[in-house]
Specification:
Layout: E1 4-14, E2 23-26, E3 30-33, E4 38-42, E5 45-48, E6 58-59, E7 62-63, E8 75-79, E9 82-86, E10 98-100, E11 123-133, E12 136-146, E13 158-168, E14 176-177, E15 187-188, E16 197-201, E17 204-212, E18 218-226, E19 237-241, E20 245-247, E21 257-258, E22 265-269, E23 274-280, E24 286-292, E25 303-307, E26 322-327, E27 338-345, E28 351-360
Antiparallel strand pairs: 1-28, 2-5, 3-4, 4-9, 5-8, 6-7, 9-10, 11-12, 12-13, 13-14, 13-15, 16-17, 17-18, 18-19, 18-21, 19-20, 22-23, 23-24, 24-25, 26-27, 27-28
Length: about 350
């Protein structure tokens, strides 16, 4: 495993705030390279205005809770998931050359819409990672059920029902969830949420998925599938030991690392000559990286990349919530010596871009 340290770090601020669509916040921020551009995939997206000095997540002094925020307070519309096309090849000057994917009315398009029987006040479909294979784009998602009453700590609460894939293309940006035995959820609530990160090497597609163990520690597992079988859950194999060995029985899968929320990234870093995984360290506000000589590890201990420092005009009515740390490897410079990462601070609720310059050590 390659040892490294952070030589320097530069804060490039909140991204996508300057847009013509009254978009005032979105999380997730996964990036999926296409031919010559990048699809960015987001989770809950808010359209409207902000009430200066007020928490985005409290309306009339009360936590927003489970219901769709559309038409409430200063929020005109809440969209479960959206996307944009980024044309820039580097993040050095921030992310400015982009266009949102729009629907027939000219508004931001909901890439993976709810089914007719899914109540928008109860069910949401949130972004995970994705991959482009030829003309087809596969988007990974988690489906969640919003809980009616927040637990008093955070303004929103939910339970994850499972994860799956949707299929679409650039031709019309219409995505349909792929059903397996009549179910859109390939992995259920008691299984890792594949694919919160996807890494392709030759004909293999590696899918990372996260779930908490009995001690409530988030553990990351690894599945793989050949490119031609990505749409068939029966063909996925799970890492069962570090030899490595793979098997079809998900109950025998072993974790490869831990400590992240539900999101992370995995890439190959040419400068370090190893694989690089980036994720938030729990909800501490620290974004870290790990290295390994193979996609399955063993992965190193986490190395701090960036420690978030946030200040708000008024004290928040809930603990600071910082999550969704990940790298966008397609923006890297100098063979990966300079990388670009994003994270989300829940009140800012825009992707925050950081430039990290790495240095080999040891």
């Amino acid at each position: 495993m390659q040892k490294f340290k952070v030589r320097s770090a530069r804060d490039l601020g909140l991204q996508f705030t300057d847009n013509p669509h009254k978009m005032i916040g979105q999380d997730g921020a996964y990036s999926i390279p296409l031919n010559g551009e990048t699809l960015w995939f987001f989770g809950d997206t808010l359209i409207g205005t902000r009430d200066p000095g007020q928490s985005l997540w409290y309306l009339d002094g009360r936590a927003v809770g489970a219901a769709d925020m559309s038409g409430r307070g200063t929020i005109e519309r809440m969209i479960n998931n959206t996307g944009l096309l980024l044309h820039e090849k580097t993040g050095r000057n921030g992310l400015n050359d982009y266009q949102y994917i729009l629907d027939e009315t000219g508004g931001l398009k909901n890439l993976i819409p709810l089914f007719k029987h899914e109540d928008h006040d109860e069910i949401r479909v949130w972004c995970q990672h994705g991959i482009s294979l030829g003309e087809t784009i596969y988007l990974s998602f988690v489906k969640v059920r919003m809980l009616e009453e927040p637990n008093g700590v955070l303004p929103v609460e939910f339970e994850i029902l499972g994860s799956g894939f949707a299929r679409g293309s650039k031709k019309d940006w219409v995505f349909e969830r792929i059903l397996f035995r009549g179910n859109d959820l390939w992995w259920g609530s008691s299984e890792p949420r594949f694919a919160s990160a996807i890494y392709r090497e030759n004909d293999w597609i590696y899918c990372y998925g996260v779930i908490a163990d009995e001690q409530k520690i988030q553990q990351c597992y690894l599945a793989r599938v050949s490119r031609g079988n990505i749409e068939n859950p029966s063909d996925y194999e799970y890492l069962t030991d570090q030899t490595p060995r793979w098997g079809k029985n998900i109950k025998k899968a072993i974790p490869v690392m831990n400590g992240m929320p539900n999101e992370l990234s995995v890439s190959y870093n040419t400068y370090l000559d190893c694989y690089l995984a980036v994720h938030s360290l729990g909800l501490t506000g620290i974004t870290v990286a790990r290295t390994a000589q193979a996609p399955w590890g063993p992965w190193s201990d986490p190395v701090e990349l960036w420690h978030v420092s946030t200040e708000h005009e008024k004290p928040l009515p809930y603990p600071k919530l910082i999550y969704a740390g990940k790298e966008h490897a397609e923006l890297a410079e100098d063979s990966g010596r300079i990388i670009y990462i994003t994270f989300i601070e829940f009140e800012d609720y825009f992707p925050h871009l950081i430039e990290i310059t790495l240095e080999k050590s040891g």
